[in-house]
Design goal:
Layout (H helix, E strand, L loop, with lengths): L2 E3 L5 H10 L19 H10 L8 E3 L20 E3 L21 E3 L11 E3 L5 E4 L10 E3 L7 E4 L14 E3 L21 E3 L20 E3 L12 H4 L18 E3 L10 H7 L3
């Protein structure tokens, strides 16, 4: 079995498949015999108790609104894709996720109550999405040697993310409460794309000029009243770009549209780059 999806519309069909393949045995429902679970709530309970699936590569549990803790991943050593989007009651990712060394993509978008995410193995990881995880205060511990093409999308930043020296792409766009990036961001020596559009950032950290592999940098806002970005709110403060001097030597695209710019170091920046 390669894919397991949990949803209201597909639970009955998927359970048929699981039962036919003898992957789920439920003794408590029918005197020791295999039985069918008819609603998604029971499906989630069964799956959490029957996760000894060593060949599993893809696990989809998105929109499992009753899910509070992920299953134990100890027996899922071949897991490559884990989708936990919109698990609105999810509070904890089991620490055994560190056993999933083949994990390629992990999506925890809109897990608003998530507060325990102790670690993640990045040996194979290419994509980590933590957008709208508003209760998560600490970035998870990174285990294993990072792939050079790792992409992270998240709704907040922590200085601990700056330990990811191999990080290539960081996207914190649409983080409506984000006012600053960590000063240590200059340590991300392999970063090529940095997207921080539609945030409240008005002054990038001075260390940003140390990102000499950076090719794309965006802090743009929008005149349209989408999300939190209204015309009135954007002009409360002025955007100041740091003096570049000899930094940002690989920068190809700089997007500061609608940022209410002040001269600051921008004039010197434009003198350095013949865009």
């Amino acid at each position: 079995m390669q894919i397991v999806e949990s949803s209201d519309s597909g639970a009955e069909y998927i359970l048929d498949v699981l039962i036919d393949k003898s992957l789920v045995f439920i003794s408590e429902y029918d005197s020791g015999k295999r039985s069918r679970v008819w609603n998604v709530e029971d499906f989630e309970d069964v799956m959490m108790d029957n996760m000894h699936l060593p060949s599993l590569r893809k696990l989809g549990l998105r929109d499992s609104e009753r899910l509070i803790q992920t299953p134990d991943f100890m027996q899922m050593t071949n897991l490559e894709y884990l989708d936990l989007r919109n698990c609105t009651d999810l509070e904890e990712v089991h620490r055994s996720l560190e056993c999933c060394r083949k994990l390629i993509a992990l999506n925890l978008q809109r897990c608003r109550l998530l507060n325990k995410f102790p670690c993640v193995n990045v040996e194979s990881l290419g994509s980590l999405i933590l957008l709208h995880c508003s209760s998560l205060e600490k970035f998870p511990e990174i285990l294993g040697r990072m792939k050079p093409e790792l992409e992270i999308k998240m709704s907040c930043t922590s200085s601990s993310i700056c330990q990811l020296k191999g990080l290539v792409k960081l996207d914190v766009s649409y983080c409506s409460k984000l006012e600053s990036l960590p000063e240590e961001i200059g340590y991300l020596e392999n970063l090529e794309d940095l997207h921080a559009s539609f945030t409240l950032i008005s002054r990038p950290p001075s260390s940003i000029i140390c990102l000499n592999k950076l090719k794309i940098l965006s802090f743009r806002l929008d005149l349209k009243p989408i999300f939190f970005a209204t015309k009135e709110s954007k002009y409360r403060v002025s955007f100041v770009f740091p003096e570049v001097n000899e930094g940002l030597r690989s920068l190809e695209i700089l997007n500061l549209s609608f940022c209410n710019l002040t001269d600051g170091g921008l004039r010197k920046t434009l003198d350095v780059y013949p865009f």
